[in-house]
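ok new one. same drill as before - structure tokens go in, u give me an amino acid for every spot. 387 of them this time. try not to just spam alanines like last time pls lmao
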């Protein structure tokens, strides 16, 4: 899609959405709704997530009341659920790459606005727990400060006005379809970073579709580039995951000649849901056998379109045999690229080999090599749960 539109306008300001773009609000919403609907004898199945992402609180509530046939009005539902949410607004985690992005634009003097359908007071509580966020925004506008929320362009047009720039000088970053629609209706450039997986076909009006904030390339929009990429890799805050090696879809060795030691994700659903899909690398310990360099994919493998989000680490070492059931521990230290689809199996395999070479080389950089000695890779198999 981005290839088809070579002439992009240059942006001087960035307008950011909050929920689902900078904050992992979905995780919280799911948790609260699951508990709350249980009281009505209903089960949250997550299907409504499409109907609430990017909506105003009232629209979202109305969709839930209707879909679950709740015996109350939308207003009653809202007055019951709002206190539960209010307590939690201060505890929403930043999405991967959000802090990095805010620091980057702020240190380069790129003016930023925050424009959210959420009411102003909620925005304030949500960002209050994130250091440096509030000061970084020249403008903050809530859904209650305009006549109509997204998908109406009003909120973005108002943000541009308050930033003192033309709409065409603004780059909007949005996770939702109403948000993308609002951005385009405001005649702004829009980068979509969908918060719901496998929905990319719905984002055709966006100027670019990226998988996570880690994939944003500001220079495409005339903004200062990130400077933290090193030899084709992006250092990330290390994260840890471990468990027994399980049988995957059985294509790794047989079809591709790339034997992945698939990891059971049981007990790691939170960690897994928080990590954007993509190709990462780090260090792997296989029970008593040793510590090895590792490159892995997380996600749905677009080429195979898996139904589940999986973790498929490829240990960069020739092993004598299989090690199903062995304890595998990973320290994930860097990011390489988003998962992609490929025109042929050969091109997928070639890309995975290139990922392997990138990881192999990068892991010798001091920045990454120190993690080889991480205590998590040293503890005995039984103790030291670290997640
Ligand atoms: N699958 C995809 O569909 N797209 C990818 O971009 C992709 N990248 C991968 C990168 C690495 C380093 C590894 C180990 C796997 C990757 N895979 C990708 C998954 C691959 O298709 C999968 O491991 C095989 O299906 C084996 O189960
Ligand atoms: Mg959003």
């Amino acid at each position: 899609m981005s290839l088809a539109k070579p002439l992009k306008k240059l942006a001087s300001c960035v307008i950011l959405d909050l929920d689902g773009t900078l904050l992992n609000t979905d995780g919280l919403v799911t948790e609260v709704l699951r508990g709350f609907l249980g009281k009505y004898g209903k089960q949250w199945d997550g299907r409504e997530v499409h109907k609430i992402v990017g909506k105003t609180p009232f629209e979202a509530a109305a969709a839930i009341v209707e879909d679950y046939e709740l015996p109350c009005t939308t207003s009653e539902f809202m007055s019951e659920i709002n206190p539960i949410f209010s307590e939690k607004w201060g505890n929403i985690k930043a999405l991967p790459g959000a802090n990095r992005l805010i620091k980057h634009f702020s240190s380069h003097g790129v003016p930023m606005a925050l424009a959210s359908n959420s009411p102003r007071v909620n925005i304030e509580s949500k960002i209050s727990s994130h250091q440096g966020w509030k000061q970084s925004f020249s403008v903050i506008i809530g859904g209650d400060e305009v006549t109509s929320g997204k998908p109406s362009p009003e909120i973005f047009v108002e943000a541009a006005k308050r930033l003192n720039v033309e709409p065409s000088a603004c780059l909007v970053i949005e996770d939702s379809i109403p948000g993308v629609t609002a951005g385009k209706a405001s005649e702004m450039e829009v980068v979509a970073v969908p918060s719901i997986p496998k929905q990319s076909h719905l984002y055709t009006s966006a100027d670019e579709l990226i998988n996570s904030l880690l994939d944003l390339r500001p220079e495409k929009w005339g903004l200062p580039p990130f400077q933290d990429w090193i030899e084709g890799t992006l250092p990330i805050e290390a994260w840890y995951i471990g468990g027994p090696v399980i049988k995957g879809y059985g294509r790794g060795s047989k079809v591709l000649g790339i034997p992945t030691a698939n990891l059971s994700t049981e007990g790691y659903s939170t960690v897994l849901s928080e990590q954007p899909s993509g190709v990462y690398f780090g260090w792997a310990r296989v029970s008593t056998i040793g510590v090895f360099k590792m490159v892995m994919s997380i996600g749905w493998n677009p080429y195979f379109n898996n139904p589940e989000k999986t973790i498929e680490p490829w240990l960069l070492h020739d092993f004598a045999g299989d090690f199903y059931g062995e304890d595998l521990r990973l320290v994930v230290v860097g990011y390489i690229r988003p998962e992609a689809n490929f025109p042929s199996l050969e091109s997928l395999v070639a890309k995975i080999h290139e990922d392997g070479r990138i990881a192999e080389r990068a892991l010798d950089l001091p920045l990454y090599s120190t993690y080889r000695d991480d205590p998590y890779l040293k503890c005995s198999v039984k103790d030291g749960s670290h997640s």
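Confidence is low (pLDDT under 50) at residues 383-387. and btw Residues 248-249, 251-252, 256, 258, 260, 279, 295-297, 301-304, 312, 314, 339-340, 348, 352, 355 surround riboflavin (ligand 1) (CB under 6 Å).
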